[in-house]
Amino acid sequence: MTGRWLPLAIGLVVGFLIGIALHGWPSRDFKGRIVSSDSDRLKPGKSGAHSAPAGDSQTTDALLSETDALRSEIASLNATIDLLREQVPARKTPDEKRSIAREIYRVFTRQGSAGTVAGGVDYFRIMESFRFLDDDAAEVFIAKYKERLTTNKEIDQVALNLLLVSGGEPAAAFLKERLQDPLASQFERDMILAHLGGVGSVVTSRRIIPIDDDLGNKAIMLASSPRMEDKCGGLGLLGAWQDARARQFLRGVLESEANPVIRSVAVRALGKCGDAQTFRFLSDYFNQVRSSGGRLGGAVEEAFCDAMNDILVKYPDAAKR
């Protein structure tokens, strides 16, 4: 891909992530769809990428049949996840866990290619399942990502989303490898960074991505860059680093940065890595700005509320003075 098309491509990816980005995963408007689209596209007479031409009943029937088949697959996947949650997860073998992960990947990929939510994968249910699938799920998604990258020179965004959400040691190793590989293309790096710190958000993993000093320092280096993609991706990655250095850096960004998008990412990242002291800092900062008649902006104010809620989940007594 030539240099002149790269900004456009990254812009499209960031636009794709806005549903996650403005509210974080999976609490708000990202209701369970890697690919979001209007199921009305498959109804006769509706406009859209998958609408059948007028009078072409065979095409319409084929699309509706595909939708019904996918809806059945989604129902089957949701039932599988329910069984996983109801049974004792520890009794699942690595092969069984990998099989479930492959089915998650297959249905999500099919859902995207069909261009319809077809009843919708229950994303929150699948997010919760990653707590039980351990490293086996992430390893499946990483293998899918690398297979597409090697074979077709393409970025598998479904696999990338799922591996980051599944978290754990494999996700940390993946980030370290791809972000620090001198042979990785700028396009690939920017795709990964866009998923780590989309517009106003940070990635949320069901199992914490363990960030060591090497990867944490890489995140600070990225977050210190004047380049928007690097800065937001680095800030998002700092949200996974449960370390005082991450909190100190993010507080500094909040106090010195004027760009509301960057401020939103920094605040949400603070919510992910913050402690009780961070809660008090955010609360005091928010109240000070409001009492002085200033405005943080709608997106930043919402980020403050989400961040403080995130901290209260981990530290229920943080609000007590």
How would you describe what is shown here?
The chain is mostly helical and 321 residues long. It has one domain (6-39, 66-314). Helices cover 66% and strands 0% of the residues. It is built from 14 helices and no strands. It has helices spanning 6-16, 18-21, 57-86, 94-114, 123-152, 157-166, 168-180, 186-196, 213-223, 228-238, 244-256, 260-273, 276-291, 298-314. Helix 3 packs antiparallel against helix 4 (94-114).
User: Tally of extended strands?
Assistant: 0
Gyration radius, rounded: 21 Å
> Which runs of at least 5 residues are low in confidence (pLDDT < 50)?
1-55, 114-119
Helix content: 55-70%
Mean pLDDT: 75
Number of helices: 14
How far apart lie the N and C ends? 54 Å
Shape: globular
**How do the helices and strands follow one another from N- to C-terminus?**
HHHHHHHHHHHHHH
DSSP strand content: under 5%
Biggest beta sheet summary: none
Computed structural class: mainly alpha
Q: Tell me the number of structural domains.
A: 1
